[in-house]
Every structure is written in C-alpha cells, then in structure tokens.
Amino acid sequence: CIRELDAWGVGRARKNGHISQVQAPGHDRPRCVYVDFVNTGPAVSKTLRAQLQRTSGVRRTGDLLVTELALADGACVGAHAVHIATGRTITIASKATIIATGGLTRLYARNSASLNMGGDGYALALGAGAELIDMEFVQYFPIGHLAPRLVGMDPIMWDPFRYKLGGKLVNAEQREFLGEEGRYATARDHATRAILEEVAQGRGSPHGGVWLSFEHCGETELRAAFGPIIDRLKANGIDLTRQAIEVAPMAHYHMGGIRVDADMRTAVPHLFAAGEAVGGANGANRLSGNAITEALVFGRRAGERAAALAARTPMPPAVGAAPARAAKRDINPAAEIVRLQ
To answer: pTM of the predicted model, to two decimals?
Structure first.
C-alpha cells in the first residue's frame, strides 16, 4: 500500500532517494513514513480521492445520511438513507456493503476527530445484528493543544514537532516528568496517564494540562524544520522561541468497533467493515503511526473480498421500504444524527 500510494503521487518524504522513516513512540525501530509531518493524512486522502476520480465505473453519491442497513433473510442487501438537504428518503440496493465510517471520538468534549466521527457506523452495524468488540478502549492523544488559543490549525500538530525536535514536557515546577530528556519516546497511554497525574497532584498548567517547550530550539532550527508553519503560529501569537504552550490529553482514536474475521466480514452476511470502524485489531492501545496503515490494509482487503462476493451474487430484488421512522417525508436529518449517536 505504501509503494502503491507513492506511485499515485502522494509525495512521501525522501532521503538519499529512499522513502524516509521515523521511529514513533512505542516502536523499536524507524518504520513510520510520512509526507511532510503535518500533512500526511490530508495528502493520503487527496491522493485516494484523485485515484477514485480516475477510476471508471465508480459512482459517488454525497449528501446522504444512512439511517438503517437494509436486511433480507438476515443478510445485508443495502441501506436506507436520508437526503440531508431535502429530508427525502432513499433506498440503496447492494450485493455487498462496507462500513468505513471511522470511530466515535467526536462524542468526547476534547477530541481530535472530524465532525462525522460520532459512532454512526457502530450503531448501524449493531442494529443490523453485527457484534461490537473492545468498546471500552479509547486512545487519548496526550499533547493536544490547550492554550494559548490556536485558530485554523490542527490541535494534534505538536506530534510532528516532537518527532523532529523532541521538545520538553514539563510541569508547573518546570520539571520534566517523563524521563525522556528532550526525546519523543513515551507511548501515548503512558504519557496521558503521566500528564493527568501531574494535574491531579497540583502540578499542572493554568488551563489544566502541562507545558510543552521548544524554547531550547533557535529560530533557525525551527524554521528549518517547519518553515511557514512558524509564521502561522506567530500569527496566532505563539513564539516558540520565547514561550511554552499548554497541552493536555484529548480523545483521538477508538480501539473498539465492529467484530470482523480476517476477510473483514461481519457476523451479518454480505456486510463488511474497514478502518477505525473495525474493533479488536489493537487491543487496549494503538501504537502511534498504525492508523493510516490499518485503514489502507483493511480497506484493500474489505474491498477485494466485497468485490469478489458481488461478482458472484445477483442484485437483490426490490429492497423493502425503510422502517416507519425513516419513511416519514418530514424527517429531520439533524435528529437522525443524534439518534445514531
């Protein structure tokens, strides 16, 4: 998947003609690849969308909110949806269906998730008869931005800063408490626990976190590593050469999700799942750097298995009407989103 995306033009960072690799916390060797540290996720998404546009035979449909999976004789045969702009109900028939809706961390007050990460896919799968697993395991990103106010920038942006520059996590006494000595080596669950312990003991920052400092780095070093991002920070009133910033844990990733087998099949025939919608792959905590890899590998396998099933399956007959709740013409899409969550 890494080399395939590279061939599609994702733009991996390179050194001496080879794809660059960094060692993430919890790993025993450099194995994480990236684009330019702060834009890896957007670059991967953009590349996949571009490849999709170049692929004939794929129909894209937007502005739909799926409210129920359609079932016939216990198998998934499509989905019932609502057109968000009009409230009109729509039924989609399918030979195979894949849930790839991500996790649920948007439900938490402090989170790094996009607006759609409200657990809708879990609700759809559970309602259709699929099993969920490890739903109690939520990963917190330990150094989510807390203060000063940051506008128009990713709250987890300090992760790449720590990859490149180390940085020092210090408490209110200006003492490093992780024993990292300026390196980035502590796994996320351990760092989260340590930060919360500092706050509980009264050694936290004014807004309830701890301090992350790059004051030991000069302007030249900062600009060499992150260039124009330094200017964007200064536009937000943040000068890393003169001040530390406050960080605190925020909900970032959900290890739980839909139980699948090695072919990404759920307990419901003709229903598959992929990416963060899948549970059980990481145990109680996910290693940093594994999420995109997981999405790509699970996505490829689910797509291949679903396509193979669809190739030998006739299109289901007319899918039954949506449940009474979804059949109303005056359905409120916002209320349906809340119901699913």
So the answer is: 0.88
